From TrEMBL:
One GO process term, biological-process aspect: lipid metabolic process
Xref: InterPro entries: PI-PLC-C1 (IPR032075), PLC-like_Pdiesterase_TIM-brl (IPR017946)
Record keyword Cytoplasm present: no
Keywords: Signal
Top-rank taxon, per record: Bacteria
Protein name: Lipoprotein
Residues annotated as signal peptide: 1-16
Gene Ontology molecular function: any one: phosphoric diester hydrolase activity
Keyword Signal found: yes
Organism in which the protein naturally occurs: Streptomyces dangxiongensis
SUPFAM superfamilies xrefs: PLC-like phosphodiesterases
Stretches assigned to coiled coil: none
Length: 333
């Protein structure tokens, strides 16, 4: 597997140096809730992938968080009605977000020492605070279901830093070993939200406002997620998108891998500041490889390439690959 396998960390290897989350590059799976990828969401968790994606709709009719690719009023996913470890891998599927979180909590009991997993949540049509499905309700649900197994913004601040940006620049991220048993939530605006001409207050800005306000109120511990700046761009994309008061609350960035590679953007900006950079559709970087089942060597080469381009996570639809491949971790460039 070459360079991409250098930091694969064997469970129980107490002698291996544990790098910080900000110093590594790992592999994630796009739309891991899709039944065509994994029969059950617990199998996505078993896959070894360091990032799993959920598409979520705020259903204002039923006041539920729906998990689906294209149905805002129903659930279409591999999350099952399982709340205990014994119930996993066999219950009825098509659950809402609470059900997916129940699966994660049950699976976490079986694997309390698992490497950190980023849970990327695309709010397809955004939050709907008027229907009781806003950032505060999202945080409440995650906290109720997962409790202490979430790595939260407050943990990065550590009682020392006044913004997430200051903490990231100081490289206050924990080591991967310290994050064992933890989930890290990333929030991005959704495709429906972005195409809605009447919606000018997207998920990222709304959650950025929440982080700022929670910190000012002395309640930053209530926040469960990190909002991401969406879209590959040159320089610091926060300066043209957000009010100055919330720019320092963005330390996750998420964009198309091929755009980052082909654009000539100086992606060293992200690793120099210890930001988390997620590069999507990694298969499309030239030379393109399979979006579903490339060879192990091709995945390793793509991981090594994007690590040198300062990615923290690379994602594609590689659910067919083995845990040995999907759990690969290498040194960030």
């Amino acid at each position: 597997m070459g360079a991409a396998a250098l930091l694969v960390m064997a469970p129980g290897n107490a002698h291996a140096a544990s790098p910080k989350l900000s110093a590594t590059t790992a592999v994630g799976t796009h739309n891991a809730y899709d039944k065509a990828k994994y029969t059950y969401f617990a199998q996505a968790l078993d896959s070894g992938a360091s990032l799993l994606e959920l598409d979520v709709y705020a259903d204002s009719v039923s006041h539920r968080w729906r998990v689906s690719h294209s149905n805002p009023l129903g659930d279409d996913n591999n999350c099952e009605a399982a709340k205990t470890p014994a119930e996993l891998y066999g219950k009825s599927r098509n659950q809402d977000l609470g059900g997916c979180l129940d699966n994660m909590a049950a699976w976490n009991q079986l694997h309390p020492d698992h490497p950190p997993i980023v849970v990327k949540v695309e709010l397809k049509a955004g939050f709907d605070d008027n229907a009781g499905l806003g950032p505060d309700e999202f945080d409440t649900l995650v906290a109720q279901k997962l409790g202490g197994s979430v790595y939260k913004p407050a943990a990065l601040l550590g009682g020392t830093y006044g913004t997430l940006d200051a903490a990231a620049k100081a490289d206050a991220w924990p080591t991967r070993d310290a994050l064992r048993g933890k989930f890290v939530f990333e929030l991005i605006p959704g495709t429906v939200e972005q195409s809605n001409p009447f919606d000018h207050y997207w998920t990222d800005e709304e959650y950025g406002d929440r982080l700022r306000d929670l910190y000012a109120a002395g309640n930053i511990a209530a926040a469960q997620a990190f909002p991401a700046v969406l879209g590959a761009a040159g320089g610091d994309p926060r300066t043209s998108r957000y009010d100055a008061s919330i720019r320092p609350w963005f330390v996750f960035f998420d964009g198309d891998a091929a755009t980052y590679v082909n654009s000539g953007y100086d992606t060293s900006f992200y690793s120099a500041n210890h930001y988390i950079l997620i590069t999507t559709d990694a298969h499309n970087v030239s030379p393109a490889i399979s979006a579903t089942d490339p060879t192990d060597a091709e995945v390793a080469a793509r991981l090594a390439l994007l690590a040198q381009r300062h990615a923290s996570l690379i994602t594609s639809d590689w659910s067919a690959k083995s845990p040995a491949v999907l759990s690969s971790v290498t040194t960030r460039g």
